[in-house]
Amino acid sequence: MSTDPTTMTRASRGVYAITPDETDTDRLLHRVTQVLDAGAVWLQYRNKGASTALRAAQARALLPLCRAHGVPLIVNDDWRLAAAIGAEGAHLGESDGELGPARAAMGDGALIGASCYADIERARRAVDTGASYVAFGAFFPSPTKPHARRAEPGLLSAARSLGVPRVAIGGLTPDNAGPLVAAGADLLAVISGVFDAPDPARATRAFAACFD
Ligand SMILES: Cc1ncc(COP(=O)(O)OP(=O)(O)O)c(N)n1
Ligand SMILES: Cc1ncsc1CCOP(=O)(O)O
Ligand SMILES: [Mg+2]
Question: Which ipTM value was assigned to this complex?
Fold first, then answer.
């Protein structure tokens, strides 16, 4: 497995772990290490409660850990931070700015994701303006984001023709995620189902088994 960001193999099928809001950076690194050791293939740094300075420090701290595992680091909300620290990508939702400037600044190789909620037309536009992957959800009630809009699994099959990886998010557990993979999800994006599990490594492996 390559740990060079320019040549690392980018698996585009498997567990896409997203960090919980964690103020203690050492604890964040410890928790993420467990999940990467267990086989998560992408990591998103997301911390909705942190200051700008803490977010920059935590994102920077995660980068060598991700590199050591050959896992791309994707920064939520803020492509400028992603570019500044040399992360592999950024994830942008409807309040996070346009994809075009992010793509122009980060280059063709960057992994730039777009939240598409339950909107296939939004997904089409996102791909047309440079998204590397599209994310749909929430598919189930999310403990992390209880008011997230809901989506139906049929969206995942409808999005096959877009030709980019399809990510499912929202309230996923190892017990409910299998049908989403069957419907076409390439990546399962998970916060609480992994990080709030009694054994995050075991939970990561259980999610990964949904792809077997
Ligand atoms: C993989 C993935 N999918 C969706 C989201 C949600 O993005 P957004 O709608 O911008 O909401 P916040 O995460 O910023 O609260 C995501 N982060 N990652
Ligand atoms: C960021 C986001 N967008 C839709 S649901 C969600 C939170 C996902 O977290 P969890 O896996 O704990 O439901
Ligand atoms: Mg966002």
Answer: 0.99
